[in-house]
Design a protein that fits this description.
Largest sheet of chain A: 7 strands, antiparallel
Number of helices of chain A: 6
Distance between the termini of chain A: 44 Å
CATH class of the largest domain in chain A: Alpha Beta
CATH superfamily of the largest domain in chain A: Naphthalene 1,2-dioxygenase Alpha Subunit, Chain A, domain 1
Radius of gyration of chain A: 23 Å
Oligomer: homotrimer
């Protein structure tokens, strides 16, 4: 159960660099590529001729060409040519609204008529040269909501990430969770503690001492359909913590886009945006490597949790105060899902390929 | 949906050299081996004692011996011995008609009473010392008819095999497709073109210049159940093309036997028979290597096409003029399938193993 | 169809050395670990908080800690703590009776109220310093009864283990099979034969000539639910065989515990106990290596047999005199299964986790 009339991150620009990319998103098999004017096109990954995946083809002068028999597909899903054929009567394939913005390719897997690029999640830092961003992509076999739960309850850091960002003081600082419209915010503040290894590294990276007490914060914001941005950081203790001046802290935003592939698998785009030493590419790479290792620790836990839930489908789970972030996020999703079901009555029919006879 | 009362290629002689081979064909699990008189036997791959696969056993003096408890199976499916046992009352297992001919082992997976070795597809070149043959076997997860489509529409060469046998002129030369009884023939002729890399190699192999214009032909013949023989070649331009004298051309027959394993998987026996320099084993190996690489390029396309068709089961495909070969071949298959269903009424019951009590 | 109100071997002590072990037994996902007082605990592998497998966690001072959010689970299935939480109302998870005895961890996957440690299969040699034991564990995808059949009919040694313990004389010596209460015993005696390679090695290991005629015996005893102990050995011919004095023979007990994982997969604990040179660890290792190789030869046969039986579900198998051991063992199992079904009426309900609301 995932929302479809929303924008998801589909891929990063490098993934469609010079070649098409096939990726299933919300159960839809989609081919992404860069069309003639440089904009991104997203189409059903199904050649209307013989059903080959168009993503096995290639892009020639901005036109997607099927790799089986050379059918040329236009970026609106209408065949524009094929050697030796008149293609006017060829059935159309489905087009998906797609937009490149903030260093990501976004796709709208639902009703194209409702797609509104202005609704794409805003990432002001992505357009600000004072910030740098590094990240990666993991494929994980779990319901996307298990990842939302994971990110909206960071007490798991103490256990899953014990050697990098976890520390006992997280357990001792109860989070506060609130709704802000369709967003959910859960925050935790820790004062006068020792920074864990990852944050010592970030302090050093920012030219700050790493052996003094710090104040630490975690502010997780869920935005539908499944984006979780986490403001995290440490400041030398006693300078205001979250609001300490820039030269007293190392802070960043953990960037998480969770895109459902199927009901029980996801494309997990993780990353970190920081506003210190943005030009230092070595530091970007170092943070990316560290974060990649940390987030890989969640994979087995989430996949095994999914398998346990599959095996015990009737068992209810506990909803503790630490789970409030995930619980409230799911309530937002449920409300929007109900609204989407209501509004989908009267949705236009998707064109389906029809047969023509052999000549 | 495949024909069962027909002959298929099951394996090559080297695959049963000194040991039994287990292979599923048309849904039937069969063990092949060479019996005492050197002829090939094919039996249900199921020991009537405890159900072990007989193909895990061995052949001793031409008798198949089960590798679990030593049951000796006769080539008619009747147990001939077992240490310490009287085997007279043991249930029979099914025998499949099998014939070795033309360098292949052929099997009849349907009603044995109807099997007629004279109906095995004729390969005159296989018995002619002026010809040489090399080939291989691929296992591909697709409906056997997708491979027939593939071979009966060679426009795909331009795209799938762009670096070896593909060339733009194929697209420009529309094929002509006709029925000849149960056979379907689709042919294409190109004149005064440049030979693509594979054919340049073949010209050189035949001692001919490879840098002059050539005439090229492709004549694909489908024969039920799923054999496709393709006469292919190039001749120095202006000498008659297909009917040019032998010292002006390099020609050969692409040999394709497509044997269904299940509804969505095949054993694909590919090869090439040529009538120039038949004694040159190095050339045979070189052609085999080149062809093996070319045909491997089809694997991913066919398997991904199958998965797309599985995902969109209700979608109809286009049937263009270039698809006529496959379309007409499927019509022949459909007609024969209907005939097979009608004739199967009153077919003899296959003997099934029965239990005897413990003594 | 397996018995559940019985003791099975679950694992060996080294498998829970310092960390929890997750293992599915009779369809139950169970976590095993060593609790504070050194005894073994076995619990449902499902954290009542969010469904994570507890086996991905760790043991701290004898307490099982969930690796996701730090829930502390008591060895009775009652949560004993969780950072920042009152756990009194947390739902209980299922506890399985578990006992460490004879160098194995035993588990009772059925109704805990009926578990009686006195019913654990007795292994007198395991507590006798005159004996040594070595063994291993294989995971095999077959019904546990196929392995019982295998071990209760050693004629397969001649074929499956032709190069180690197999010899033609096994086929020539018909076994004798009898019931002894719920046990089944099948025995075979061979006189004045040549020892096969494995037994030559054992004779040498016991300081005896390996090039003289021997008497050989195999006495297989099935005990429910699925234990098979096999007394095996060779004695220099003419000294009494099975009852020959210790300095004239090499004998041992093949130890087989077959624990169902699912209906069609097993944990197979194999080993050998011997009462000669028990202090010789090099000999133990040599025997273990040899036996491990021999028993690995059964794996493919059993898995392929299982697949054949799955493919031909309606086919009956033969029950010959050599199969009597397996046939009678299955009759015992069937009788006990019927009794278990009858007695399970009125069994206590297993506690199931219930939801509490988010706070």
């Amino acid at each position: 159960m995932y929302l479809k009339n929303v924008w998801y991150v589909a891929c990063t620009p490098d993934e469609i660099d010079g070649k098409p990319l096939g990726r299933k998103i919300c159960g839809e098999s989609i081919v992404f590529y860069r069309s003639g004017d440089g904009t991104v096109a997203a189409l059903e990954d199904f050649c209307p001729h013989r059903g080959a995946p168009l993503s096995l083809g290639f892009v020639r002068d901005g036109t997607l060409v099927c790799g089986y028999h050379g059918l040329e597909m236009g970026c609106e899903g209408k065949t524009t040519g094929m050697p030796g054929q008149r293609v006017g009567g060829f059935p159309q394939i489905r087009r998906y609204p797609a937009v490149e913005r903030y260093g990501f390719i976004w796709v709208w897997p639902g009703d194209a008529a409702q797609a509104e690029p202005n609704e794409i999640h805003r990432l002001p830092w992505a357009e600000d040269p004072a910030w740098a961003h590094g990240g990666g992509l993991y494929h994980i076999k779990c319901d996307y909501r298990l990842m939302i739960d994971n990110l909206m309850d960071l007490t798991h850091e103490t256990y899953v990430h014990a050697n990098s960002i976890g520390q006992k003081e997280i357990d001792d600082a109860p989070p506060k969770t609130v709704n802000k419209g369709d967003q959910v915010v859960t925050s935790r503040f820790m004062e006068n503690i020792t920074a864990p290894p990852f944050w010592k590294m970030a302090l050093r990276g920012n030219g700050l001492a790493d052996d003094v007490p710090v104040d630490r914060w975690q502010i997780c914001t869920f935005t539908p359909p499944s984006h979780v941005m986490i403001e995290v950081g440490v400041a030398h203790a006693g300078h205001g913590g979250y609001i300490a001046p820039a030269d007293r802290k190392a802070s960043s935003i953990v960037v998480d886009f969770i895109t459902p592939e199927t009901e029980t698998s996801i494309w997990y785009f993780w990353g970190m945006a920081r506003n210190f030493r943005p030009e230092d590419e070595e530091l970007t790479a170092k943070i990316q490597e560290g974060q990649g290792k940390i987030f890989a620790e969640d994979l087995e836990m989430l996949e095994r949790q999914q398998r346990n839930l599959d095996a015990w489908p009737d068992r209810n789970l506990l909803k503790l105060n630490i789970d409030a972030g995930g619980v409230l996020s799911r309530k937002v999703i449920d409300r929007l899902l109900a609204a989407e079901r209501t509004s989908s009555v009267g949705q236009p029919i998707i064109p389906i390929a029809r047969a023509s006879e052999a000549s």
